Write the structure tokens for this entry.
Amino acid sequence: MKHSSKLEEFAIEIQQLEKTYSNGFMALKGIDLSIPQGSFFALLGPNGAGKSTTIGCITSLIRATKGSVKVGGFDTISHPVEAKSRLGVVAQEFNFGIFDTIIDILLGQAGYYGISRTKGLPIAEKNLKNLGLWEKRNDQARTLSGGMKRRLMIARALMHEPEILILDEPTAGVDIELRRGMWDFLRELNAKGVTIVLTTHYLEEAEALCDRVAIINKWEIVKVGTMKSLLSSLDQESYLIDTVETCTPAQFKWLKAFHPLLDENSGSIEITLRDTTSMDEVTRKFQEVGLTIHRLRNKTNRLEELFVQLTR
């Protein structure tokens, strides 16, 4: 991938970003956000929180009311060409000609960046082979499945070999097998130094892929940091416990007295632990009442628990 000659610490820098529409609605309220070079960054939030507006300001599709955005060290207002050339964008909606062939879609995209057909062909071949679409290169886009169209969007966004890739819900509607394959490809891309910014409603996807995360709620950033530090800040987690023995009503009542945040869930015992209670203590209590823990698993994805706490 191409990399900026400017040795910038951050791939994207956002300072005091605000967006107010003509009807008076304020879609962003003074956002500050710095995305390090080479990171795999998740921007998460509920619907209507401001994710799409933020992405729109980064890509210059939306003009901010106040504040600044720099991409690769270049301000998107004063140096729009330099900033845009460093970005590859995969939008939520399919936005290519459905009657065009896959290879023509990629070469047409390359042409927007001044890349000739001769130079574009090997790039297109590499991207299509990496994403499992090379055999379909002469097919019309309308013949592809939804998952293949998602991969085509990624291949097209990489035609000018950008140093930053923005993915807006890239695996929406993609089956599990294809999603896992896309995860592997994105990990390889990130390992080569490409900064990736991901928005997704699949929180397990963000936890599996991203090393840093920002959570936006009600048009403001409410939490930002490394994935590890944010998950360690959880003040409670919910688990499902399966026991070797069947838990009797009397045993359950005794356990409930020990730990009020305990319930039954489809044959399993659900328990919510705060920082003040260790799993070793729970195990001892189960043993005291004559129950052996057979299996222990998180009730929900850890990032999901944090997300719910912050956006409730």
